[in-house]
Amino acid sequence: MRRLLLGLVLVAIGLGGGLALALMTRSEAHTRTVLSTTTKVEVVNGSRTARRIPAAIPTLVEGSTDPHGLAISNAVPSDATLDSADYVGRKPRQLIVTWERAHLTRNGQAAIWQRRGIAIWQLDRGNAAAWHRVYTYETLVNNVVGVEGFRVSLGDISGDGRPEILVFFDTDGSAGGGTYHLFANAGYRVRQGLVKDLSSDQGTISFAPNALVVREGVDYRGPGIHCCYRRVRVTWMGWNGRRLITMRQTVRKNRRGWPPG
Predict the structure, then answer these.
(1) What is the pLDDT of residues 113-122, one digit of tens each?
(2) Does position 74 have pLDDT exceeding 50, yes or no?
(3) Does residue 160 have a pLDDT over 60?
(4) Are 207 and 153 spatial neighbours (Cβ–Cβ below 8 Å)?
(5) Which residues contact 118 (CB under 8 A, 6 or more apart)?
(6) Per DSSP, which regions of 31-148 are E strands?
(7) Is 6 helix (H, G, I), strand (E, B) or coil?
């Protein structure tokens, strides 16, 4: 009887030890799994080597219905360097990217050609996670014409809480020359509601709450080629879902000097 009891005790101890060992092993395994979890980071704004013949501009980006979840490197040409990325999260969702690329001489000291571009990508209807370009512009830069860069800003001028897109095509020059382009949506259709040449010497266009504000110098007094205007015309404009409309306009003394406003 004593031998039987002693055997049972030893078996119980063995089982308890095995259970404790199993729990420790599971705990250690779980800890190793957690520590081995890593985060993958994609570098998208590094420089890329351009080809002798420019690579094609992508026509499709897939992977997420959220613009922040896209691999931005897939939204620009494979030989281009990403300059900027802006996101519209409300439907219709959009991703706006700008880039530059150049094919250099063998010594790398001069560009055989240089290009700058911009594209507006928009998510297709539904949840297909497929994005297509709804606007694209790329220019070949030389000593005579070309765009030195793009300045992208977002602002709501329709009052629906979804931002519109304003892009300044900077053509450089001592007067700060360039052209403003406003892109707005009529449903899923993108419309270019405004295209206006306006150098920094002449005025500015910017967003205000529920409005696009155009400031233009009037009554030029000289004598220099860059200065100045006695008055400034300020126009507040909105988007009614189909077109740009003027809501208010005033002309007043130009107190700021340069640029007018």
Answers:
(1) 889 999 999 9
(2) yes
(3) yes
(4) yes
(5) 96, 97, 98, 99, 135, 136, 137, 138, 150, 152, 167
(6) 61-62, 81-88, 94-104, 111-123, 130-141
(7) helix
Task: Answer left, alpha or beta for residue 140, where phi above 0 means left and psi between -120 and 50 means alpha.
Answer: beta
Domain extent listing, the chain? 50-143, 148-261
136 forms beta bridges with 119
Residue 171 has pLDDT above 70, yes or no: yes
pTM of the complete model beyond 0.85: no
d(CA 55, CA 248): 46
| CA dist list (Å): 28 to 19, 21, 33, 52, 171 | 14, 10, 9, 55, 62
Task: Find tokens 């052209």 and name the residue.
Answer: 179
Tell me the two tokens of residue 201: 């010497």
Distance of alpha carbon 54 from alpha carbon 114, whole angstroms = 10
What distance in Å separates the CA atoms of residue 105 and residue 59, rounded to the nearest whole number?
29
CA gap 219, 234 in Å, rounded: 14
- Cβ atoms within 10 A of the Cβ of 261, count? 18
